[in-house]
Design goal:
It is built from no helices and 14 strands. It has 175 residues and is an all-beta fold. It has 2 domains: 38 residues, no CATH class; 129 residues, Immunoglobulin-like, CATH 2.60.40. Strands 5, 6, 7, 9, 10, 11 and 13 form a 7-stranded antiparallel beta sheet that branches. The protein has a 3-stranded antiparallel beta sheet with strand order 12-8-14, with no helix packed on it. Strands 1-4 form a two-stranded antiparallel ribbon. Strand 9 and strand 10 form a beta hairpin.
């Protein structure tokens, strides 16, 4: 069963009716009646993804037109934290290859090959390189799983200008 977050929607309705009467000295009395419909929610799965640090592509030097940010060893790698139920298995799917065109129409091209490593604790050097494009992980006993985002960026065909990318990752609970 595929789901990211399933919530049973619940609502609370309160109906209130008021009626005013005047007592002998001219001050109104107010009578209220209220009714409530009980509500409840059942959360089947609750996964969250928090970006703790964006990948830094400005600091590393290019070598022969290639910028490399290794997810396991580079201090420039992005850092994300998945939050969920301890022991929960989660399938991650992400775009591992992307071609970026310069927005101004100069014809510049940048090719990005994303790599992700992960670990149940915030320990980058102990993290393990995940399968390219899709992986199944297990949330730690503390309710976290950390991801480091790296890339091999080919800028050999880049021209001055603006290149925009938005790395996306999909999470789904695995039964």
């Amino acid at each position: 069963m595929k789901y990211v977050v399933v919530l049973l929607l619940a609502f609370l309705a309160t109906f209130m009716q008021s009626r005013a009467q005047v007592n002998p000295v001219g001050v109104p009395y107010y009578y209220f009646r209220s009714y409530a419909v009980p509500s409840s929610a059942n959360i089947q799965d609750n996964l969250g993804l928090v970006t703790l640090r964006n990948i830094n592509l400005n600091a590393p030097n290019a070598v022969n037109g290639i910028v490399t940010v290794a997810p396991i060893t580079s201090p420039y790698a992005g850092l994300m934290r998945i939050e969920g139920s301890p022991g929960k298995r989660v399938r991650l799917t992400y775009l591992n290859f992307e071609t970026l065109l310069e927005e101004g129409g100069s014809g510049g091209v940048v090719v990005a090959n994303y790599r992700i490593s992960g670990y149940g604790e915030d320990n980058q050097t102990a993290s393990i390189l995940l399968d390219i494009g899709e992986a199944t992980i297990t949330i730690s006993d503390q309710g976290y799983y950390f991801l480091w985002l790296g890339t091999v960026l080919d800028i050999s065909q880049a021209k001055p200008g603006n290149y925009v990318s938005e790395f996306m990752i999909e999470m789904e609970g695995v039964s």
